[in-house]
């Protein structure tokens, strides 16, 4: 899977080619320190993406193909806790990187 930023890709299927068999999936997105308004904006962006990709209500019978839910959830303190406690059954786990960085640069790096 390519395109976009080089996110951290974990989970038991991280190195495998995605399965081409159509089936239902649940995407779990954990977000820390957002307001409800910000969370709703992210939910709407996901809903827009689903509609743009053709994975939304469609056809004349208005078949529902996706639902986006927004709910409060405790933040797991570490990636390990998230993968074990919340995402333990996930085939793929993506940890987004907002800015690609060299491996030797930490977030608060200051050369002075």
Give structural notes.
With 112 residues, this protein is mostly helical. Helix content is 22%, strand content 5%. It has a two-stranded antiparallel sheet with strand order 1-2. It is globular and about 50 Å long. The model has no long low-confidence stretch (mean pLDDT 85).
Give the helices and strands, then pairings.
Elements: E1 8-10, H1 36-52, H2 79-86, E2 93-95
Antiparallel strand pairs: 1-2
Region (Disordered): 1-21
Task: Output the keywords.
112 residues, 2 domains, two-stranded antiparallel ribbon, 2 helices, 5% strand, globular
Helix content: 10-25%
> Mean of residue pLDDT?
85
Total individual domains: 2
Low-confidence stretches: none
Tally the helices. 2
Kindly report the spatial arrangement of strands forming the biggest sheet. Answer: 1-2
How much of the sequence lies in strands comes to 5-15%
Q: Label the overall shape.
A: globular
Q: Rg, please?
A: 17 Å
How do you describe this structure in short?
The protein is mainly alpha-helical and 112 residues long. It has two helices and two strands. The model has no long low-confidence stretch (mean pLDDT 85).
